[in-house]
Design a protein that fits this description.
The chain is an alpha/beta fold. Helices cover 48% and strands 15% of the residues. The structure holds adenosine-5'-diphosphate (ADP) and adenosine monophosphate (AMP).
Length: 213
């Protein structure tokens, strides 16, 4: 099972990808999480990625594609994976398609979590992420049991720098310019499925499970 999550920043890709990964027993691979882990560990890749992320821009394809291909070549991906935040450009999608074709394989579904722009800024300003394990919450919709403390590991929850409204607007523009064309790309391949991401997260998940079976 190879699934791609599409959708604007803050649409709920990560929230749903984690639930899919758990239900179907495949790894959840978020390129954003990989970059943030590298930033935390102050690796060369992390320092390079940070320059782009802080401005709401995309990390260049050369860097992103390499880390993704390395990740999906690992043993735990043998039975599939859920990609969250990759691909984000047509060239990234083409590299993935070609890499899978070489293995006589292909992505099964690209799931577009559809949320209008008007809802996005509110979603992002309410998102809180755990500094330690990366779990995400929303101060109104999906609050932690104790304010600002991660339910899973007890660490502090923070507002990501790139979730501040001025950066979110940049990220939305980048999404429309560079990522939205993927909707046509996967529609043409016959594997695009759209779910209404404005519903409650459990209802969105039910809709996804109906698609995946
Ligand atoms: P993405 O991975 O697409 O950037 P997230 O999964 O991190 O988005 O979700 C963005 C924010 O919206 C988070 O704070 C999350 O808790 C919240 N969220 C996710 N799904 C829903 C939903 N269906 N309804 C309301 N809030 C949601
Ligand atoms: P995310 O956690 O998916 O919202 O990603 C956070 C940031 O990481 C994005 O705004 C980009 O700067 C960068 N990023 C994550 N995935 C990609 C990708 N596939 N291509 C380019 N940049 C990415």
């Amino acid at each position: 099972m190879k699934i791609i999550m599409l959708g604007a920043p803050g649409a709920g890709k990560g929230t749903q990808a984690k639930m899919i990964a758990e239900k179907y027993g495949v790894p959840h691979i978020s390129t954003g999480d990989i970059f943030r882990a590298n930033i935390k560990n102050q690796t060369e890749l992390g320092m390079e990625a940070k320059k782009y992320m802080d401005e709401g821009k995309l990390v260049p394809d050369e860097l992103t594609v390499k880390i993704l291909l390395d990740r999906v070549a690992k043993e735990d991906c043998a039975n599939g994976y859920v990609l969250d935040g990759f691909p984000r450009t047509i060239p990234q999608a083409e590299v993935l398609t070609e890499a899978l074709e070489k293995l006589n394989d292909a992505v099964d579904y690209a799931i577009d979590v559809d949320v209008p722009d008007e809802n996005i800024v509110k979603r992002m300003s309410g998102r809180r992420a755990c500094v330690n394990c990366g779990a995400t919450y929303h101060i109104v919709h999906i609050p932690p049991k104790t304010e600002n403390i991660c339910d899973k590991c007890g660490s502090e929850l923070i507002l990501r720098d790139d979730d501040k409204p001025e950066t979110v607007l940049n990220r939305l523009k980048v999404y429309h310019d560079q990522t939205q064309p993927l909707i046509d790309y996967y529609t043409q391949k016959g594997i695009l499925r759209t779910v209404d991401g404005t519903k409650d997260m459990k209802d969105v998940f039910e809709d996804i499970v109906k698609i995946l079976g």
